[in-house]
């Protein structure tokens, strides 16, 4: 019986004897594996990016929305029209009494115009309180954030984003200047540090005023949201219960608010993007199947080209098993080499992606690397079986007659 | 008991609708150490006879006893083992593996038999010097002359110390002088006791054998001993 080391050496010699054929086959395998690695790196990078962006909001945040969102599908209750009570500043103030909640920020959002010295632009106006800065991790580059005061009073002061500062004031100092928002005038008391991040709203283009000032501006008494921050992450479930209890008591026993926590939103995005990555990996894996078929074709050609060699080996006393093993080993070697080259290529591509888009943490996940390598090697060997069997069953007399 | 005993061997090839009787009722006994030439026109069945003797082909009917054992009924793996251990082939076109060196070509049967690398090395080195290939061990076939190639092929055929050598036109691709050398080499091996069976077109070479078998239309026409 032939030694396995000799089979390996023989197959290696056979593979390296035809460098072009070997290189092409490895390339096909490599592209397949590289596609899996690169595309999953992209998908997983997007997932990590979104997760990180959400985490920037703070993980013990609870967002209170007016109205009840049914999460249990359509029930009889869904058709009973219930006009929800608005959330009010008093509701927000009531939440501050809960021992589990450290910070509360009421939120009013609307569009308006901002003007200074003849310059005018559309702007998103946010009405909130001092705590909003801490909840959203805003820092001021100049001046200070909204002062601590009675939420129902609302002094005529504003904090503006970095972009607004540049557009309205240029190099002129903004602090202390009077700006006009809608039909009201505010004194600028702070400029936010440039952040650029923040899903949905770009903090650099906001103007933030006290909540009562925003309500007066938009002539509204209700709130858009209430942001509440639990004492810590573990306190979030208990804090949710307390918020519901407090608001239910204030709203005649009706549960007409929806609470969103960071974890729930994060979990949903995580799942969606995870599934997307998996789907992309699946599509990339198709190219591996194509590479497998190529391996089969190339090996069949190799068998045909080496027919007389196979006849010789049989004449020298090689068993069918030995010949099968030689060709199977060759196919496996080519697949493994191709898969490893593809891994390298994929990692290079992912590195290039990270260089081009530094915000995207494009690292291929471990499972994708394992699955890519595994699929490549398994398809290579599987598609190598047929040519190897074909070689083993060649008739030695006919095979020797071939030149 | 003769080394080779063929009894009423039939070999029929199907060519389209017609049957070709490549061998008809061939019965033959060859003793160990004999030097036999098989001659005859193309299509007389001499190559088919050699393939049968070398267990590369199976007869449709009849029995082939090699060293007293009926080898026609052996399974493919057992036949491979008999080829490996008892039979050496020498071909007209040498059949060297082009990507392997002379050494590696000679070592092939040892490789297939699973013999340890250290032993392979000493046996191949011995064979190289025996066949006057001492400095050619690391040359690939395309770097060797025709005569050297055939010597490598003969070294390969004898490395397992087989009981018989089957040569199919061994000088067919060589010039006259080189052919003489190769024939002399084969005869030397025969002188050491290996049965030598040569299929040839060349009357000169055929004449040199001690026993000459003439074939025609798949039958043995004459079988003369010198």
From TrEMBL, chain B:
Keyword list, A-Z: Antibiotic resistance, ATP-binding, Cell membrane, Membrane, Nucleotide-binding, Transmembrane, Transmembrane helix, Transport
Residues annotated as domain ABC transporter: 4-226
Cellular component GO terms held in the UniProt record: membrane protein complex; plasma membrane
Family annotation (InterPro entries): AAA+_ATPase, ABC_transporter-like_ATP-bd, ABC_transporter-like_CS, ABC_transpr_LolD-like, MacB-like_ATP-bd, P-loop_NTPase
An example molecular function term from Gene Ontology annotations: ATP hydrolysis activity
GO BP annotations listed: response to antibiotic
Pfam families associated with the record: ABC_tran
Family: Belongs to the ABC transporter superfamily. Macrolide exporter (TC 3.A.1.122) family.
This protein's name: ABC transporter ATP-binding protein
Native organism: Denitromonas iodatirespirans
């Amino acid at each position: 019986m032939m030694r396995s080391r000799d089979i390996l050496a023989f197959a290696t010699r056979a593979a390296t004897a035809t460098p072009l054929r070997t290189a092409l086959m490895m390339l096909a395998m490599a592209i397949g594996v590289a596609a899996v690695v690169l595309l999953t790196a992209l998908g997983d990078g997007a997932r990590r990016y979104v997760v990180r962006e959400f985490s920037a909001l703070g993980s013990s945040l609870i967002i209170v929305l007016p109205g009840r969102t049914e999460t249990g599908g359509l029930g009889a209750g869904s058709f009973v029209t219930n006009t929800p009570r608005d959330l009010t500043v008093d509701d927000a103030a009531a939440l501050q009494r809960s021992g589990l909640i450290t910070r509360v920020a009421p939120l009013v959002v609307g569009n308006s115009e901002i003007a200074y010295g003849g310059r005018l632009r559309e702007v998103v106006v946010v009405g909130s309180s001092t705590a909003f800065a801490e909840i959203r991790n805003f820092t001021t580059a100049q001046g200070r954030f909204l002062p601590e005061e009675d939420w129902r009073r609302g002094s005529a002061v504003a904090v503006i984003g970095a972009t607004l500062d540049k557009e309205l004031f240029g190099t002129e100092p903004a602090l202390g200047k009077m700006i006009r928002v809608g039909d009201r005038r505010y004194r600028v008391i702070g400029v936010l540090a440039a952040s650029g991040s923040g899903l949905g709203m770009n903090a650099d283009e906001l103007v933030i005023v006290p909540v009562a000032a925003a309500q007066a501006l938009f002539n509204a008494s209700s709130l858009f949201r209430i942001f509440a921050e639990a004492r810590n992450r573990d306190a979030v479930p208990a804090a949710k219960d307390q918020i519901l209890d407090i608001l239910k008591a204030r709203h005649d026993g009706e549960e007409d608010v929806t609470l969103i926590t960071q974890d729930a939103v994060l979990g949903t995005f995580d799942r969606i993007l995870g599934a997307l990555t998996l789907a992309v990996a699946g599509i990339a894996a198709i190219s591996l199947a194509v590479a497998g078929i190529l391996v089969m074709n190339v090996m069949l050609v190799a068998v045909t080209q080496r027919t007389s060699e196979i006849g010789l080996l049989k004449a020298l006393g090689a068993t069918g098993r030995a010949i099968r093993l030689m060709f199977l080993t060759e196919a496996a070697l080519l697949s493994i080499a191709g898969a490893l080259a593809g891994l390298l290529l994929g990692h290079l591509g992912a590195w290039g992606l990270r260089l081009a888009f530094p915000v995207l943490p494009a690292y291929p996940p471990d499972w994708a690397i394992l699955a890519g390598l595994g699929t490549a090697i398994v398809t290579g060997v599987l598609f190598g079986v047929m040519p190897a069997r074909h070689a083993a069953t060649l008739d030695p007399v006919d095979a020797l007659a071939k030149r | 008991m003769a080394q080779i005993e063929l009894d009423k061997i039939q070999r029929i090839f199907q060519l389209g609708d017609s049957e070709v009787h490549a061998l008809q009722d061939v019965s033959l006994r060859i003793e160990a150490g004999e030097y036999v030439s098989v001659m005859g026109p193309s299509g007389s069945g001499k190559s088919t006879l050699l393939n049968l003797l070398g267990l590369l082909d199976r007869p449709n009917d009849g029995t082939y006893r090699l060293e007293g054992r009926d080898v026609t009924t052996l399974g493919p793996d057992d036949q491979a083992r008999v080829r490996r251990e008892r039979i050496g082939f020498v071909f007209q076109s040498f059949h060297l593996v082009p990507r392997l060196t002379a050494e590696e070509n000679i070592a092939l049967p040892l490789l297939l038999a699973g013999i340890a690398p250290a032993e392979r090395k000493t046996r191949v080195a011995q064979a190289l010097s025996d066949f006057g290939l001492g400095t050619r061990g690391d040359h690939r076939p395309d770097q060797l002359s025709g005569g050297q190639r055939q010597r490598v092929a003969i070294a390969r055929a004898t490395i397992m110390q087989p009981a018989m050598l089957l040569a199919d036109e061994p000088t067919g691709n060589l010039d006259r002088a080189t052919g003489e050398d190769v024939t002399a080499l084969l005869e030397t091996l025969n002188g050491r006791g290996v049965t030598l069976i040569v299929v040839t077109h060349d009357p000169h070479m055929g004449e040199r054998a001690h026993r000459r078998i003439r074939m025609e239309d798949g039958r043995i026409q004459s079988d003369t001993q010198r």
